[in-house]
Amino acid sequence: MLRKLQRKTLIPAQIAGYALTLLVGVAIVLLSLQVYCDIKPLLTHQTDVFKAHTVTVSKNVTVFKTANKEGLYFSEKELDKLKSQEFVNNVAQFRSASFATKAAISFEGQRMSTDLFFESVPDGYLDVESDDWKWDSTADFLPIVIPEDYLNLYNFGFAESQSLPVVSAPVLSQITFSIFVEGNGKSKVFKSRIVGLSGKINSILVPDDFLQWANSEFGTSEEHSSSRLLVEFTDASDERIPQYFEANGLNINKTELETSKMAFFFKLAMLFVTIIAAIIIVLSVAFIIMSMNLIVQRNREMFVNLYNIGYSHKVISRFYKVIVSIITAVDILLSSALVLLVRRWYMGRLSVLFDTGGGIIPTLAGAAILLALLLIICNIFTDRVIRNIIK
């Protein structure tokens, strides 16, 4: 009898409105969460988009600096000024070798050699992971990292013009050669091998602790301050960056900031979509709460009579809480299924370009959290609305 009376109080249009808006809002939130979790690892491991973006900075070369090279180096005052900028997260200096270096290799009975230059950066800025990237003062092995562009120039430029074989990165890492270091009246030979290719640092790199030791051992002069810096930005899309660099005569490759700008806009788009979806969910919850309030107001006399004949407000509200809970649970299940279908579609296309290994845990976890949160909110407010009317 009680359920029949309560069913007559329901307004189908209001229930349908809540179901539709909630379905749309939850689907957008879950899809945004799933896309973000799927895309972020791909960009993190296969590009530098989501890493703290670091760019190489140097001073502009002018006629005066050509005559006086000291003007190319950064002073302590200039470093402190750069570090104090709000858009700068950290600054690291390149360390340059102050001794003569030569690389030599024997191939089919012929010995080939070339002069080299070495630089080093703190290990935290290196985009190469290798177990061999370490220097032991008791051993004669020296690991080297070169830019990816060097290998590309050889394969697609030099090797092509000289009819030489191309070399892949794994093959290159197996080639050993000798490094001759000389200076300050001393010399030493190291066995060496290229242990990685850097995609963002355009220099021939050796471990920083080796270069510190070698400069003190073989250096022919005091080390200069660095002429190049690695600058890590808090937000590479900050419009103050190009203004500051232009005003201070600093050179920065603007294309290096493009991936960070893409990261910024990607995150901004995800945040914007999530906020819109959250607003839709809030509006849908507010809609059902107002609908429940309207139902109670229109049937106030019936609810009061039910209360007077012995039905508690919890018993009276139970029917409405069950209805809202069922609609909410079904909506979230449908939204989750829809998101997983969409994910299956876009992951099928991403797998052609990337090695994808993401799971559906973000969708399932997000759905469970939203379900629990919405059930708690809707049940509490439904119970409160009926209790306030009949008491």
Task: Spell out the blueprint of helices and strands.
Blueprint lengths: L1 H8 L2 H35 L7 E6 L3 H5 L8 H8 L4 E6 L1 E2 L3 E8 L2 E7 L2 E2 L20 E7 H15 L6 H4 L3 E8 L2 E13 L9 H11 L9 E6 L6 H8 L2 E3 L5 H41 L1 H9 L4 H41 L7 H30 L1
Parallel strand pairs: 7-9
Antiparallel strand pairs: 1-10, 1-11, 2-10, 3-6, 4-5, 4-8, 8-9
Gross morphology: elongated
Rg calculated over all Cα atoms? 33 Å
H/E topology pattern: HHEHHEEEEEEHHEEHEHEHHHH
Count of separate DSSP helical elements = 12
| Largest sheet, spatial ordering of strands | 5-4-8-9-7
Distance between the termini: 22 Å
Low confidence ranges: 45-51, 63-67
Helix and strand composition category: alpha+beta
The portion of residues forming beta strands comes to 15-25%
How can the largest sheet be summarized?
5 strands, mixed
Number of domains: 2
Count of β-strands = 11
Helix content: 40-55%
Mean pLDDT: 80
